Amino acid sequence: MKKLMSVLLVLAMAFALVACGSSNTPAATTAATAAPAADTTATEAPAADNGNALLDADGNPFHIGIVTGSVSQSEDDRRGAEAFQAMYGEENVTLAIYPDNFTEELETTIQTIVNLSDDPEMKAIVVNQAVPGTTEAFRQIKERRPDIICIAGESHEDLPEIGSAADLTTNNDFVARGYLIIRTAHELGCDTFVHISFPRHMAYETMSRRVAIMKAACEEFGMKFVLETAPDPTSDVGVAGAQAYILEKVPEWVEKYGTKAAYFCTNDAHTEPLLKQLLEYGGYFIEADLPSPLMGYPGALGLDLTEEAGDFEKILAKVEAAINEKGGADRFGTWAYSYGYTVSAGLAEHAKNVIQGESELCDIDDIAKAYQVFSPKAEWNGSNYTNADTGVKMDNVFLVYQDTYIMGNPGHFMGSTSVEVPEKYFTLK
């Protein structure tokens, strides 16, 4: 915790706010074209409360709860929650973990979230990722404690469903990214795109729509689109079995699809073995489902990032150097700052600002302001979610994404947040 508190001191610096509007309008105004400098001068971040109460706009104390997956399932999400707790104190911020096997332990998941509302001073609960059961938990909380702000990050439930119970939901922009990931692969010279997932994920609206968009984009750019199935880590095979499958299959896939194929997987646990084998056998990896320099790369590269913990500029620099050393330059990408880390900490920061009367709950500029405390040099873009079936735009559900960074010597941003996504992709499903 002390380490997290110390590294957070580098995070506060000048930033631009994200503009509200369509997903093809750049949100932040940074114009960086190279990797963030690893040796930037530290500036003062929001000071830790050290046990002092958080006070609302009327001077009353309040608490914030954050629910995430475990380190084994969603490390970045958990670390972001820990960073926020380190910033504002354990007395003010309560952390909880939903079960790894959340598909089979629905009631436990629901109760884990609902239990936070037993605290009479709890005023906001953030769930990231909002796994199945979150909607029901939020409904139960609202019945007993309507004063609590319920916020969902990266929902596994359909967005209209979670949006009906949550006060605010944010999700990675699966619409824009479905197109932009393929466009980036094409720009890097790829001729094939391999999508790896399993039935549970493909039942999610966000992922099934993204597949349709990716397939259509491949047709636009003259690329082959391939669907491959891998074991669900929440099934009986577990994480170890799912990872072993990826390790075994990647050499076969590379032989089958060639070294100009780009790969994408929908599950965090699949990412590390996929990266490890692509580095060994060839192929491209544009960005993870929930991108981060920490998503799969440290394990695949055998990196110890203890000294860099929490400082994503230094983390990215170290990961990039290792990628280059292994011959992966210009083939592997990420977001410069962890999405999961930023969402956990950023949504909690946003909740704090709302409770203190400094921000509006459903204002994307205010959401971006909170996110950028934890991603100070990031360029973001985003829009409100629009239901593809009804055409209805939801005022409390936002889709966001960060510019893609391709590691190399030198590495470079792709300018993805400035690309206009063709309108036809927003209604594909």
What is the overall shape?
globular
Helix content: 25-40%
Q: What are the segments in which pLDDT stays under 50 over at least 5 consecutive residues? A: 1-50
Q: What is the H-and-E element order?
A: HEEHEHEHEHEHEHHEHEHHHEHHEEEE
Protein model, in words:
- With 429 residues, the chain is an alpha/beta fold.
- It folds into 2 domains: 2-173 and 339-402, Rossmann fold, CATH 3.40.50; 175-336, Rossmann fold (3-Layer(aba) Sandwich), CATH 3.40.50.
- It is built from 14 helices and 14 strands.
- The protein has helices spanning 2-7, 71-88, 106-115, 134-144, 159-165, 174-187, 199-202, 205-220, 238-257, 268-281, 297-301, 312-325, 339-355, 364-371, and strands spanning 54-55, 61-68, 93-97, 122-130, 149-155, 168-172, 192-197, 224-229, 261-265, 333-334, 380-386, 393-402, 405-406, 412-413.
- The protein is globular and about 60 Å long.
- The chain starts with a helix and ends in a 16-residue tail after the last strand.
